[in-house]
Design brief:
Strand content: 5-15%
Structural class: mainly alpha
Helix content: 40-55%
Strand order of the largest sheet: 1-2
Radius of gyration: 24 Å
Number of helices: 6
Length: 192
């Protein structure tokens, strides 16, 4: 058996950050059962399925569960989740929105914080406002205009927040080990 880790990193990132959470949500939808008080049990009940591509919209009856069974089989191979609880736990632990202040961009924070502290420790620029201004000037060279907030007050507050949170500037993207891959997918070329 060949390892899934052989798949090119540029293919992994969209799978891990975009496709897999969507697949988990679909798995959750397909495996959430409706409780029937009259039958006193959970039932697999699917209403017609509507697909809308922005140009045309169709509604499928999903007769004999053909589409949902097909999706279930697909998700079994390419998602590799064995229960609704497992899917919900992964969505919560790996993909849920974090509480508190959101980082607009990890690279922006890294450069902003690192540059500011470099200037604070090793430059002859003494005032904090000059250090922040120089930090922003440097970021304007590195990043596309409008891609970050270049307001000095905002930057001062953002740096103070990062210091308070014990931020450690490290150029380290989220590790692929933090995510799950399907053990059922034997392909070394395709993740979905």
């Amino acid at each position: 058996m060949r390892s899934i880790r052989m798949v090119n990193f540029t293919q992994k990132l969209p799978y891990l950050e975009q496709v897999r959470p969507e697949m988990l949500k679909l798995y959750e939808l397909l495996n959430t059962k409706r409780y029937s008080p009259s039958k006193k049990k959970e039932l697999r009940v699917f209403s017609p399925i509507t697909i809308d591509n922005g140009v045309k919209k169709i509604t499928l009856d999903n007769s004999c569960y053909w589409l949902t069974d097909l999706l279930d089989n697909y998700l079994h191979i390419y998602l590799g989740v064995n229960s609704l609880e497992e899917a919900q736990q992964e969505l919560k632990e790996v993909y849920s929105q974090k509480k508190g202040r959101k980082a607009n961009n990890a690279a922006h924070n890294l450069i902003m914080y690192g540059t500011f502290h470099l200037l604070q420790r090793y430059s002859s620029i003494k005032t904090k406002s000059e250090q922040i201004r120089m930090t922003l000037d440097y970021m304007e060279l590195l990043f596309e205009a409008g891609s970050f907030n270049n307001d000095e007050n905002y930057t001062n507050a953002a740096i103070a927040y990062l210091v308070k949170q014990g931020y450690k500037p490290q150029w380290k993207p989220k590790q692929t080990e933090d995510y799950s891959f399907s053990p059922n997918n034997q392909s070394t070329e395709h993740l979905w």
